[in-house]
Specification:
By secondary structure, the protein is of the alpha+beta class. It folds into 3 domains: 263 residues, no CATH class; 152 residues, Cathepsin B, Chain A (Alpha-Beta Complex); 108 residues, no CATH class. 29% of the residues lie in helices and 22% in strands. The chain is built from 15 helices and 26 strands. The chain has a 6-stranded antiparallel β-sheet with strand order 3-4-5-8-6-7. Strands 10-9-11-12 form a 4-stranded mixed β-sheet, with helices on one face. A 4-stranded mixed β-sheet has the order 25-22-21-26. This is DNA-directed DNA polymerase. It comes from Bemisia tabaci (Sweetpotato whitefly).
Length: 672
């Protein structure tokens, strides 16, 4: 020892305090490697509390330089003595912790400006690393990846990090354990140091999680000195998370927790929920069974928006407004033609900018749902509906409905792949004959859907008054709720212009309701039913058996076979030592349709299914193969893919790409 206090604290007491401090430091490093043992955490917190009180007593007799010298000499002597026995500071040979800065101290003020006085210790300890790190061995089942980040951060050091990305929920969470570096001793520079530190921490989390300004973020910082009182930042937009927000919350925490940022590592939990943002043109890397670009171009009822700016939402709204008002006057019809044509994109952009300026909306960073709300508030004569899928069942946003006192026109938009496009026909866009806005459901038959909010008699969207006098129709033999309901069922309803009266018939004898279109060839008979096996209308007691397969090649058209095989390389190390990941880098596929299935020529091409052999090279071969499969083909409605030992190898890579990157939802048929 270089010095012993003269007034009460002996050399043995100094040794005890230093030994306890070093042992606590070692245990904190070990616990950081495996943070799941709650009992060890509680024990560590109790020891830390005792160490801090002893350390404050020791600091009254020794200055900072003397304490650092004592710790250095003590640690070196202990390390040499323990290495002689084959041990390394209570760590086994399999545990190789990262370099850690161990800091402690006491705060003398309650404001962030001087919450970091000179810490007594800022010593960095080096540990030998004969084996794999414990951080690389124990991944939990709910953890997607775990890493030690030794990146160059000026004011802090990352000890341990765990990230989880919930792609289906469009959310992510990052748990990081970090230690702050030693702050400057000069109080005049401490305020700027803490501002720079929090700026650096915020930028690290925002950039590492790829947070957009419109995403919702949440920050939770827990100090090891008092985990019961964390610094919690409530959910807010990404552009609203700032150092000022943290300071205002930090002042409240420091009022009752002076050692908040000083004792041991900090646990920072950063959560982000990604909100849909519409930017410019299509993102070619995200596709469904068809790419969104192909889907918009080939689907009637959708107008494709092609742009390189961030105004796709405003452009889509302008085109949708022009569509619903196109019949008002010849000028309105000409305006819609101008703004909806691709060769008139400049005129569309001009109208979109005018709309944004009129409503005071800025789309420089893309359009979030808050911007959709702003457009809805600025367009009171319209109801904006944003659909989130191609089936019409998922609605992201829906404005106020139309009423008798305030009628509104519908502006329907489809959002996918960070892009907005206008919908001119819901039935065409969602591949159905009818669409119920109340239930958000497409259906193909007049009897295929019963809307609880509508009228079951006249099929009106609005419910008819049940207190009205019933009126019987002699043509369709059905009863209606009042005069308006009765007259409405004579209006055109089906896609071929027929009314409800012509489409839905009720039998007077058996009271069975049936569709007139399905019984045009076969007259209705009472007590009959439709057999699901032979697809015929039969009497009760009918016996039916499995129907034979029709061996007619002309009726078996519309599908294509794809036989493929892939090869993989093993150059990337896996999670365990000595193991390497399989990464596909070559895929060869051959295509056959019904017309060329018996052709023995393996090199030629078919007029219907195209080139016979396809070769995909590189680490994107699986993604390129799926892109090839989802390409629209005339006359091909179904594709059957086969590979040798696909269930045990090839299909694993295909399914992984389908689910994780393509966001498809394949149906798996289990074997057995």
């Amino acid at each position: 020892m270089s010095q012993t206090p003269e007034n009460g604290l002996g050399e043995a007491e100094v040794d005890r305090i230093l030994e306890e401090f070093l042992r606590t430091t070692e245990e904190s490093i070990r616990i950081l490697q495996n943070w799941s043992h709650t009992e060890e955490i509680d024990l560590l917190e109790q020891r830390l509390a005792g160490v801090h009180s002893d350390w404050e007593e020791l600091h009254q007799f020794l200055d900072e330089t003397q304490i650092e010298e004592i710790i250095e000499n003590y640690a070196n002597n202990r390390l040499r003595s323990q290495n002689a026995d084959g041990s390394t500071l209570a760590l086994t040979s399999e545990e190789s912790p990262p370099d850690v800065h161990c800091e402690t101290g006491d705060a003398t003020s309650m404001t962030p400006a001087n919450a970091f006085p000179g810490s007594p210790v800022n010593e960095q300890h080096e540990f030998p690393s004969p084996g794999p790190s414990g951080l690389q061995q124990g991944l939990g089942r709910n953890q997607s990846r775990q890493s030690i980040n030794k990146g160059d951060h000026r004011n802090f050091k990352i000890v341990k990090e765990n990230s989880v990305d919930y792609k289906n929920l469009k959310a992510a969470q990052k748990d990081t354990y970090l230690v702050l570096n030693k702050p400057p001793n000069d109080p005049a520079h401490q305020k700027q140091w803490i501002i720079d530190t929090f700026n650096e921490i915020l930028l690290y989390f925002l950039n590492s999680t790829e947070t957009n300004p419109g995403d919702r973020v949440q920050l939770d910082i827990t100090s090891q000195s008092n985990p019961e009182q964390p610094l919690f930042i409530t959910p807010r937009r990404g552009d609203q998370l700032s150092v000022e927000t943290i300071f205002s919350r930090l002042e409240k925490v420091l009022n009752s927790n002076k050692k908040f940022l000083l004792a041991g590592p900090l646990k920072v939990k950063f959560s982000v929920v990604r909100f849909p943002v519409g930017f410019g043109n299509f993102n070619k890397s995200i596709r469904w069974t068809w790419s969104f670009d192909d889907y918009c171009r080939k689907t009637k009822g959708i107008i494709s928006i092609s742009n390189k700016d961030t105004l796709c939402l405003a452009r889509a709204i302008v085109v949708a407004i022009g569509f619903v008002n196109r019949e008002n006057s010849p000028e309105s019809h000409k305006l819609f033609k101008k703004i909806s044509r691709k060769d008139r994109a400049d005129h569309q952009r001009t109208k979109a900018i005018e709309l944004c300026r009129t409503l005071g909306i800025n789309l420089d960073n893309g359009a979030t749902l808050e911007h959709v709300h702003a457009f809805q508030d600025g367009l009171p004569d319209y109801t904006i509906t944003v659909f989130g899928d191609r089936s019409g069942r998922k609605v992201i946003f829906e404005g106020p409905p139309s009423t008798d006192n305030h009628p509104r026109k519908h502006i329907d938009l489809l959002f996918e792949n960070e892009h907005y496009v206008p919908i001119t026909s819901l039935t065409s866009a969602f591949q159905s004959s009818y669409y119920c806005r109340k239930c958000r459901l497409p259906y193909s038959s007049p009897l295929g859907h019963y809307c609880p909010q509508g009228c079951s008699a006249c099929k009106s969207v609005e419910s008819c008054d049940k207190n009205q006098r019933r009126i019987f129709c002699n043509y369709c033999n059905r009863t209606f709720l009042g005069q308006q309901c009765f007259y409405r069922h004579f209006e055109p309803y089906t896609i071929d212009g027929k009314s409800i009266c012509d489409s839905i018939i009720k039998c007077k004898q058996c009271c069975k309701v049936y569709l007139a279109k399905k019984r045009e060839k076969n007259k209705h008979f009472c007590e009959e039913m439709r057999c699901l096996v032979c697809n015929k209308y039969v009497q009760r007691g009918h016996r039916c058996f499995i129907q034979p397969i029709k061996n007619n090649s002309e009726e078996r058209t519309g599908f294509m076979f794809v036989f493929f095989d892939l090869e993989a390389t093993q150059s990337k190390p896996g999670d365990k030592p000595g193991e390497f990941l399989h990464e596909p880098n070559l895929l060869v596929a051959r295509t056959y349709c019904v017309r060329c299935l018996g052709d023995v020529d393996l090199i030629g091409s078919c007029a219907e299914c195209g080139e016979r052999e396809r070769v995909f090279r590189g680490f994107t071969c699986v993604e390129d193969f799926l892109t090839f499969l989802q390409r629209p083909r005339k006359g091909i409605k179904q594709i059957v893919c086969l590979s040798h030992y696909g269930s045990g190898y090839d299909n694993v890579f295909i399914l992984k790409k389908m689910i994780s990157e393509k966001h498809w939802n394949p149906k798996i048929i289990s074997n057995g």
